[in-house]
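User: I'm putting together notes for a lab meeting next week and I want to include a structural view of one of the chains we've been expressing. I don't have a solved structure, so I'd like a prediction I can at least talk through. The sequence is below, exactly as it appears in our construct file.
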Amino acid sequence: MRRMVTNQTSGLPFMKMHGLGNDFVVVDARAHSHAVTPALAQGISHRHFGVGFDQLAVITKGSGDAHLTFYNADGSTAAACGNATRCVARFLMDETGKALLHLTTDRGDLAAKDMGNRITSVNMGHPQLDWQDIPLSHDVDTLNLPIEGAPVATGMGNPHCSFFVDDVSAVDLETLGPRIEHDPLYPERTNVQVAQIVGPDHIRMRVWERGVGVTLASGSSSCAVTVAAARRGLTGNAVRMDLDGGSLEVAWRDDGVWMTGPTAHVFSGTLTPEFLEGLS
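Assistant: Thanks for the context. Below is the predicted structure for the 280-residue chain, given as structure tokens.
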């Protein structure tokens, strides 16, 4: 697979990918110098005036096979994005023929494995369980936050707030999500999940992503809910996570939290010079 090459006059190539409907624009910046800015990310994210995405992933050269940088739809950055990492890992596996990759992110070094049948697994690293690492604004019990519903706080390179409920379909996530995202306990805002325990190794989850809104799936949220459920004693350390867009297998192991599932490369395209100039 050839890398994408561009300059200001020829536009900016991109790929549209998704993991369980959690959709991404991916820019391979290893072969060009077009700067991705928060304004550009915001412009591309618009589903009517741009391309549309939940997150934007930028591939650059790194100390391993590649370095990944993530932007939310509002132009803010995120240190981690699990499904986007799996999508990019699949692209790089197809490009290089490697079955094991070493990726770097602002979250840290991540390993990715080809599991066969085009299923991709990524180690999202160890969860952050101390209040200052998540981060929270002050010292509290991260297993029972002083918020109505007593949610669990977890860091996966980005902050999470997980509520365990009897029925996820009964929760008005459009109202709960933005309220909790901006709770003063989370100085960097937070992703919000509502999770329903189906069985000792089975969870149904819906998610509100900070800077984005309700999404069909979220890899880092799936990892955070798996860790939170295991800490609460509601499940074991390995679960099937059912999301609005499909299912992932998530396992909290000694070396980190592994997330496994399918990805899709939907199409490739090029952002025109006129579009790019309008965002400069």
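A couple of points you could mention at the meeting. The longest strand covers residues 191-199. The radius of gyration is 18 Å.

User: Perfect, that's what I needed.
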